[in-house]
Amino acid sequence: MTPATELGFLLHKHPGRVQEFSQSYGTAHVFYPEAGAERCTAALMLEVDPITLSRTRARNSPDFSLGQYVNDRPYAASSLLTSAMNAVFRTAMRGRCASREELAASAIPLELSLPALPCRGGPDFARRLFEPLGWAVEAVPVPLDERFPEWGDSRYVTLTLRGTVRLADALNQLYVLLPVLDDAKHYWVAPDEVDKLIRSGDGWLAAHPERGRITRRYLGNRRTLVQSALARLAEVDDAPEDALATPFTEPAEQEHEKKVPLNELRAEAVLAALRQEDARSVIDLGCGPGALLARLAEEPSFTRIAGTDVAFGAVRTAHRRLGIDRLPRARAERITLFQGALTYADDRFAGYDAAVLMEVIEHVDPSRLGSVAEVVFGRARPKTVIVTTPNSEHNVRYEGLTGLRHPDHRFEWTRAQFRAWAEEIERSFGYAVRHVPVGEDDPEVGPPTQMGVFTR
């Protein structure tokens, strides 16, 4: 990124000024220790008032009498710092920068440093959290006392992350993972924390190998909230197959057959439909982090596979997940990944036996669904199109869920609404549709996912 001072535009904080932001527990300061063409450093320093903080006692606060006043909160990174990040860098975390839109959407070389970070789990846990996200991680334990090495290390680490990452993604990853490493929050964990977790973890949390532990710690091990979050991750983001497995299961209960996660049922239903239609070439429109693509790549009968998504970060994650650079040449040549938007005609969408839109249409503004239909059914015109989408009637079966299943959903249809849309596709583009329930078909509210298989 040249000049490096473009960082100031992305953060919406001018490198030439020191700025202060009042918080309920102290003051956040933003300043730039260096700002040059080759290197630019932005610093967020948080001054914590322990007296003010003591008025909101957290779940993991020290239980001795002076613990409310004598603690590490003013000196170490914690959920206090993430709250300040959200207040000071909110626009940057949303990935918005009107004057530098292309830069805001691009991965840039970054180095993040936290000199004193509580890390319950040690340096290895820090590496397990950040390395799957593409970071080079340096986690150095802080000794209890350098004068007495025999005392060993403290629970703090100096954490440095280096990588080429979109700034918004980096900030959101810190927002979720810093309190996870600390395993404590300075405020009561309310139900709306599930929405915050899903929003900040969009595009990376569902596929993370430590997603269960991240979710539990972030939500303070509150059973109902954790189960709701894991259900939504599996439903929306195509998490790996154990995403719905409860982390609270007792060993005796683990002997019983586990409930198959909805995302697994959905993938199996899509694969079954593709086999039934004898599809050999398949394009996943809105592939996300590549969960379905990985399943397709496992079956030699699918001789040509493509994945596309409007989010470049998702395409990059899918590339990493599939390990294309490590595959044998013949297998790698079967797979094509590219960035693309379904609302615009694109010749690269055409030429496949089948197209899959798995949990995609609900992310599109209703006013633009006509454009998507024209692009997929009118221009690309594969022999088979498979569409899955949530059944909003089933939402009452998700404990703790209020509103839509994901903050990025523009709508969620009832079964009647989905059938009406499918009938319009039939009339307009010459396809026939059959409807397939995915998941337990509740006699009152129907299945959690509805699937339409369109053929011409």
Automatic annotation (TrEMBL):
| A Pfam family it matches | Hen1_L
**Alphabetically ordered keywords of this record:** Magnesium, Metal-binding, Methyltransferase, RNA-binding, RNA-mediated gene silencing, S-adenosyl-L-methionine, Transferase
Q: Which reaction does it catalyse?
A: small RNA 3'-end nucleotide + S-adenosyl-L-methionine = small RNA 3'-end 2'-O-methylnucleotide + S-adenosyl-L-homocysteine + H(+)
Obligatory cofactor(s): Mg(2+)
Return the InterPro entries for the record: 3'-RNA_MeTfrase_Hen1_bac, Hen1, Hen1_N, Hen1_N_sf, SAM-dependent_MTases_sf
**Source superkingdom:** Bacteria
Q: Where is the Hen1 N-terminal domain?
A: 2-234
- EC number of the protein: 2.1.1.386
**NCBIfam families recorded for this chain?**
bacter_Hen1
Q: What is this protein called?
A: Small RNA 2'-O-methyltransferase
Source species:
Actinocorallia longicatena
Classification of source organism? Bacteria, Bacillati, Actinomycetota, Actinomycetes, Streptosporangiales
